[in-house]
Amino acid sequence: NSIAWLCHQLSGLHDDADQRIFDSIIVISDRRVLDRQLQNTIQQFEQTRGVVEKIDKHSSQLKQALEEGKNIIVTTLQKFPYVAEEIGSLPGKRFAVVIDEAHSSQTGESTKSLKAVLAAASLEEAEKQDAVEEDVEEEIIREMQRRGRQPNVSWFAFTATPKTKTLELFGERQPDGSFAPFSLYTMRQAIEEDFILDVLENYMTFKVYFSLFKKIEDDPKYDRKKATYLLHSFADLHDHAIAKKTELIVEHFCNHTKGRIGGRAKAMLVTRSRLHAVRYKLAFDRYIKQKGYHFKTLVAFSGAVNDSGLEYTEAGMNSIPGNPIPESATADTFALDDYRIIIAANKFQTGFDQPLLHTMYVDKKLGGVNAVQTLSRLNRVYPGKDDTMILDFANEAWEIQEAFAPYYEKTILGEGTDPNRLYDLQQALLEFHLFTSEEVDRFAGAFFSSQARQEKLYALLDPIVTRYTELSAEEQDNFKRQLTDYVRLYAFLAQVITFTDAELEKLYVFGRMLLRKLPAARDRLPVEITENINMDSYRIQKMTEGKITLSGGEGVLESLSDLGAGRRGEPEFEPLSQILQDINEKYGTDFTEADKVFFAELQTRLSTNQTLIEGARVNSKENLQLAYNHMFMDELQTMIDTNFEIYKRITDNEDFGKFIMSRMFELVYDRLQQGEVGI
Predict the structure, then answer these.
(1) Which of 123, 158, 193 is the last residue of a domain?
(2) Spatial separation of the C-alpha atoms in residues 614 and 594, rounded to whole Å
(3) In this structure, are 657 and 604 located in the same domain?
C-alpha cells in the first residue's frame, strides 16, 4: 500500500507552471515473474483506466510505454537491459523509479543498464554513435557517469532489511558520516501495531548428536577442513538422519500446527541444499503414506538433481499422474487446502507471501539479513492466526538474536564505503604481475570500440589466463578473491561517486571479463572419504524453547570497506581416525561422570552468585545474560583444577564453549526465576 500510495501521489505532482514533475513513474520488482500482488495493489488506486501499465510481455512493450509517457509503469528489473539499445531518444524526460525490496539487483550491472535507459544524455549519445567515432577515454568517462546519479531520475527504494549497499546507495548521509533511511517504519512498531506477527515469539532449537566410525583398516590423511565438511554432510544426509527428522517434523506438524488457523495452517521446511530437499520430499511422502495422514507436500528447488543414478526436478516430484504441476505453478498449488508442507532449497525464502504459513522447520545455517528474510515468511497476519512457531535444527538462539537485532528498530550504516579501498585493491592486483597496464589499455580500447567482439576480447585475455594457471593454488585463490572484491566494489561505488580516473573503469571492465575466463579451482573435495566411514549413532535433543527477546536501539551495519574476503589458509592434513575423533568429540554425547559433576557444581555456583541474583530482580533476560557471560568465565577459571580436560575443551573449542555457556544460562535463569535460590 505504501508503494501504491507513493506512485499515485508522484504521478499527480506538478510544478509552479502546472507541468508534471515526472513524465513516468516506473515501479521495479526484484523478481523475474512480475509481482502480481504488487501490480494489483497499485491498480486498486487507479481512478482512470489506463493510468497503470503493466509490462508482462516483451521489451518493446516497455519501450512503447516510456515513449508514450504512461503515468505508472510496473515491470521487472530484468527487462531494462534489453531496452537500452532499442530506445532512440527520450529528450527532457523525467522519471521517478520506485523499487520494491531494494536489494542486490539494484546495486550492480543491471541498474547501470536501467540508468542508461533513463538518462537523456546517454540516449542522445546513442543517436550520434554511428556518425562520430569518439575517443576511447571519453567513452570510458561517459560509461562511468551512466552508473552515477542522473539529474532526471529520482529514486525511492523500499526494503524491510536494508543491506550495507542499500543504505549507502539510497540512504541519507548524516553529519557524522553515517547513512540512515529517509523514512522508517520499524519491525518493532509493526509488531506492536499488529501489522505483522513476532516470528521469534515461539522459537525452539535442537542439537543433533552423532557418532561416526572408520570401516577400513587403512588410515589415509585428508585436508581437515574439507574432510570435516564432507563428514558432517554425510551424517546430515544419512538415511537415518533424514528419517529421524522427518518423523519429528511430520508428527510435530500433525500434533501442533495442522489444527491452527481454523485447521488450515501450513508449514515450510528450509533445507541446506537441493539434495536435502529431494531426500526430504521422498521421506516425507513415504512417512505420510505409511501413517495414513491426509495431506500433501510440495518441494521447491531450481534445476535438476541427480541422486543414486536418478534425476529429480521440482515439477517431476510435485506432479502426480493426471495432475501435472509445472514449476511456475508451485506457489499457487501450495495455496490449495490439500497441500500443507512445502520443502524449499534456496527458493521461497524471500518475497514469498503465503499468510497461512504458521510453522517453519529450519535445517540450514542462517545469518544476517538472510535469517531475517527467511524467518519473516511467517509474519503475515491472517484471521485466526494468533502466533507462529519455529523449530530450528541448525542455529542457536543467540545466533538468530544477533541476526535480527540490527533490523528491530533502526538500521544505520556506521560509515560510508572508503573509495580509496579501490586503489588498494588495484595495487594488490598489479603486484601479482599477471598483467600490465598496457594489456589493460589494449583490452579497454577493444571493449569500448564500436566493433567490439567477444572472440577478440577473450583472445586478449588468453595470455593472462595462461600466467594465472602457473600460480600456486593459494595464489590463484587470493588473486581471484581480490579481483572479485574490486569488481563488486567498483560496480557499487560508481553509482554513488562520479569517478574521473579512467584507469579504474578500464580495470573494472577488464576484471569483469577476466573473472569469466579464469578456470575453476584445481582442488576438489575428497568425496571418497564417505565410502570409508559409517554412522554409529544419531540423536536429536531439544535445547531451548521460548521467546527470543530483542532489545531496542540502533543496529549498525559495517561498511563495504570493512568487509574483506580473507585469505585461504594452508590445508592441514590429518589421519581420518583423528578427524573422526574430533568430530565425535564435538557432536557426540560422551560425558564422563566427572564431567557431569563438574557441570552440576558450575551450575550451583552461578545460581547462587549474588550479583546474578540481584540482577535477575531488575534486568531483562538479555541484559542479565551480558553479566552472566562474565560470571561464567570467572567461575570456570576458579574451577580449572577440578576438571582440566573439560575446562580445556570449553576454552579451546569455540562452538562447544558457546553451546555450554548458552545451555547453562537457560538452566541458571530458570532456577533464578523459579525462586529456588535467593529469590
Answers:
(1) 158
(2) 31
(3) yes
Q: How many other CB atoms are found less than 10 A from the CB of residue 137?
A: 14
- Region of 678 (left: φ > 0; alpha: ψ -120 to 50; beta: rest) is left
Per DSSP bridges, beta strands 389-392 and 533-546 are unpaired
The one-letter code for the residue type at 655 is D
The arithmetic mean of pLDDT across residues 389-395, rounded, is 90
CA nearest 338: which of 296, 299, 285? Answer: 296
Q: Kindly state the average pLDDT of the residues 299-308.
A: 90
Query: Is the pTM here over 0.70, yes or no?
Result: no
Task: Write down the residue that cell numbers 501489522 correspond to.
Answer: 195
Q: Is residue 474 located within the same domain as residue 382?
A: no
Range of the domain at 280: 203-413
* Calpha distance 647→632 (Å, rounded): 12
Length of the chain: 679
- Is there a contact between 164 and 559 (Cβ–Cβ < 8 Å)? yes
Examine residue 567 and state whether it is found in any structural domain, yes or no. Answer: no
For residue 186, CA distances in Å to 178, 258, 276, 406 come to 19, 31, 35, 11
Cβ atoms of 94 and 2 within 8 Å: the answer is no
Vertex 224: Cα angle to 220 and 227 (nearest 5): 70
**How many domains does one find in the chain?**
4
Q: Where are the alpha helices (DSSP H) in 295-409?
A: 314-318, 330-334, 368-375, 397-408
Is-contact 361 266, C-beta < 8 A?
no
Domain annotation covers residue 445 = yes
Query: 657 lies in a domain?
Result: yes
Q: Distance (Å, rounded) from C-alpha 329 to C-alpha 315?
A: 9
Whose grid coordinates read 510481455?
57
**Which SS3 state, helix, strand or coil, does residue 161 take?**
coil
- The pLDDT of residue 521 is 64
Q: Would you state the pLDDT for residue 382?
A: 94
Largest CA distance in the chain: 89
Structural domain contains residue 480: yes
C-alpha distances (whole Å) from 640 to each of 11, 115, 537 are: 71, 63, 31
- Statement to judge: residues 406 and 500 lie in one domain: no
Tell me what percent of the chain is helix, strand and coil, each rounded to the nearest 5.
50, 15, 35
- Compute, in degrees rounded to 10, the torsion defined by CA atoms 504, 506, 512, 517: -130
Rounded-to-integer distance, Cα 555 and Cα 410, Å: 6
Are 169 and 106 in contact by the 8 Å Cβ rule? The answer is yes
CB proximity list for 454: less than 8 A, separation 6 or greater: none
604-658 pLDDT, tens digit each: 888 888 878 877 777 777 777 777 887 888 888 788 777 777 777 787 777 778 8
| Rg over CA atoms, the chain | 29
- CA-to-CA dists, residue 647 to 166, 250, 379, angstroms: 44, 39, 42
Could you tell me if 23 and 73 are in contact, meaning their C-beta atoms sit under 8 angstroms apart? no
> Looking at 347-468, which runs of residues are DSSP E strands?
357-363, 389-392, 410-413
pLDDT digits (tens, 9 = 90+) for 178-224: 777 777 777 888 888 888 898 888 888 888 777 777 776 777 777 77
